# Entry
Amino acid sequence: MSWLQRLFARRRMERDLDKEIQFHVESQVSDKVRSGISEIEARRLTRLEFGGTAQIKEDCRQSRGTMWPESLVQDVRYGLRQLRKSPGFTLIAILSLTLGIGANTAIFTLLNAILLRPLPVQKPSELLLFGDGQAQGSTSSIPDGSTRLFSYPFFHDFRQKDASFSGIAAVDSSQSATKASIGGAAYQTAHVDLVSGSYFSVLGVPAFLGRTIGESDDVSDGAGPVAVASYSWFQRQFNGDPSALGKTIRIQSHDYTLVGVARPGFYGYTVGQSTDLWIPLSMEKAFSRPGWNGLGDKFFQSLYLIGRLKPGVTATQASAETNLLFKQILRSYLGPQPSQRHLDELAHASIQLNPGGRGVSYLRYAFSVPLEILMAIVALVLLIACANIANMLLARGVARTREVAMRMALGASRRRIVLQLLTESLLLALLGAAGGVALAWKASAVLLSMATPGPNPVPLNLTPDMPVLGFTLGAAVITALLFGMLPASRAAELEFTPALKDGRGSSSSTTRGALPRSLIVGQIALSVVLLVVAGLFVRSLINLSDVETGFDKHNVLIFSLDSSTANLPRGTPEEIRSVQLQEQIEDRVQNIPGVKADGFAFFTFNQGGWTDEVLFQGIPRTQSNGGEVFFNIAGKGYFSTMGIQLIAGRLFNAQDTQMSNKVAVINETMARRFFPNGSAIGRRFGIGETPDHPGEKEVIGVVKDAKYSSLTEGTLMAAYFPCTQNPGFYGNFAVRYAPGANWQEIVSRTRHAIAEVNSNILVNSVGSLEEQVDGSIATQSLIARLSSFFGIIAVFLGCIGIYGLLSYSVARRTSEFGVRLALGARSHMLLWMILRECILLLALGLAIGVLVALSSTRILKSQLYELSPLDPTAISIAIVAVSVMTIVAAWLPARRATKIDPMQALRAE
Amino acid sequence: MKTEDRFDLPQGTLDLLIMRVVALGPIHGYAIAQRIQQMSREALQVQQGSLYPALHRLEYKKLLASNWELSETGREAKFYELTANGRAHLKTETENWKRLTDVVGLILKGTLEGLS
# Structure
């Protein structure tokens, strides 16, 4: 019989074994009877000779080789019974484990989804990304460092020359959230990616239906008006109907034919974005973008490049060849007589090849450090929970001494006992883990939405998958070993007779001693560390919230508009119509009661930026004025809407039209850097290091500085251009209303006004400026809240541990206290005697905790805003909080000791 | 039973003896114990506590196969017999044992001669 068969035929085997032994017994008895002994005597003699049949059967079972699964099942059932017997302990243990393991799993789920999980492409380990993927948008400067964005001509030329890659894919780094209409139906928002013809084949994503984009679609400008849909978009729009293929989709005034659907589960190359439609790069002209000059523009760099290594080629070899080709190709782009400056920049230009199998992600950039910090925090909380459970188990171990002694007397080996106790711990851990997984599933989704506020939820798949479940299982096993090993081995080292007689275990000071107390000290130290960390994050957040933004964030609504479906002219003299529409909107909304000011803008706050260098006529470039300037395009009313003060000169007005002088308003810093000793008004500048149109813009006004893209940015130079002279930017429409006005009504009236002016200009979303500012520090806010939450939980857990330990200790020493009281000790001396020990532990824990905190918070420096990692306020608050809570937790049971009635105590012994 | 003649079996030899006995034909546990006692001229009495675990171990290692048959007393008993594997194992082990005892005997004889 095979091993497996043996396992299942257990009952039959038991019966057989019984029968076999019985047969032997009977044969022996009959033999004796035959030789003349009476039956009764024969049976007695046989029984003596045989010894214990139970032992024989046990030995036979062992030699069957199926012991350990059988004993496991036995242990599990026994363990469950034991746990049911003490519901209080079991409940607390499982709850702490659910919280601890659940928190760890939640953070790991996010970590896995954002940092670790590979894309659903073929052999992700072979893919290499050019650059680190940490930029998005486009740039026109000559590469002079590690480059992340590339131009279409470069992609084309590189492919022809390289030998290390079996294929290279290109995808535009900005995904457009634009409007699409299927077969003439109403426009809906769709997320569109521009990709090369090689994209799907290099990544290895097959089509689910029809075909994917191929090389022929990308061969020349406008060659491929086709689109491939993502599976989920296809399901949403067409309900899986295959006749969708061949339908016409109108995107931004151009028609595309739907030729295929990508394999389910593929959402594009950017993690955290979900692509609905893929379109060939050859159709880029149809997507209006500032600064775009055609596919042949060698320095319009906006693409991510991903290469698949040829088999046998290493990453190092590929990197060397790539950098060589990079410099070669760029050199050829600079023309026959490049400037020395350009050559210098080129000398520093490089491409760093990074693993490309996990895609690019803004989320990764923003969240990798916070996630790691959170992971450390929840791991520490779990440790504290383990220490608590270990202490509880140690106490229970003492109470179960008699049970263990009995089992050992019946023949259980020490190893068996330890294994059984560990099985109980594993049961607890697994039950906690099961709850933890469910908790983590919900919690991770909540955490993600709290960290990324805004109208559109981030499409990230957070359902528990294999790595997450594996992590949870691993966490459960490690946790069980951590809190179970020590109590289990403790329980099994006993001396028989005293244990059997006494039943409660010796109350000698050795068993009481070092272990539970060191666990308490450890818990206190960890709680201090966690509270210090929480305090640092909270203070940093407070600093951030107090930052001067330079504008008034209250009472301003931001409308996100989309004019792509309105078919507005651009690049032609009729552009003026676009401007007129903007002005009409501005005027109409101005007339709504409650509205104080309104204005269009390209950017408001924390929306990215458009930067470039600037050269003033007659002013030499220096270190201080040679940096990037933040540009913005604003309507007349923008400055008063945002509350940005004018310092000198004037703001945009009706004089500044398409025909008139090109004007600009600059900020204080820019004025100061270029004109430290005079006025900037009237001076002229051009855009770029060597402007194509020098002296094109005239400064007409200077405004106060503001924060443009993040609260933590330093002082930046900024220049604003009027909407009338840069038409077509409908992205943001800001409306300031009087405090106390009914903003919902203003929202609906504004929508109405916009629709009246042109019904094809759509409102994507409405938010407030305050939300945008607060949203820019959503991550820091979340970390501050979470670390405080976990810090407080840590202290609570520690206090529960102290309370439990001390209660137990007091209960056990009842008789001792009874004697002391009877002998004349005063109750407050008793109180002090008990507390004294606790205070010692507290002091030790505080000392260790503060030391650890001081030496390790340095690593948080990058996450703290204008705060030293050794901030004394945070440390003091942590010390005070932990001390107070610990003393309260100790005082409650200690007080009970003083209420002991000596006579009762002595009798109860 | 002469108690003076009883001695402890070296480890592993019980298995060898059992297989030797079973090689003579299908036999149940009680009979194996009797047979060993007989064949050793009463010098060896196998304890049930060692016999049955050994039988089960040999069966687990697939050196013995078992079957429930009617015994001579009319009751059902578990009869063991050697498998082909078991037969081969018995042959090798017997040879090893012979070689071992020859060598040990040689050394002991030599020592004794030397001593005397």
Chain B touches chain A at residues 28-30, 33, 47-49, 52-54, 56-57, 60, 68, 71, 73, 75-78 (CB under 8 Å). The two ends of chain B are 34 Å apart (CA to CA).
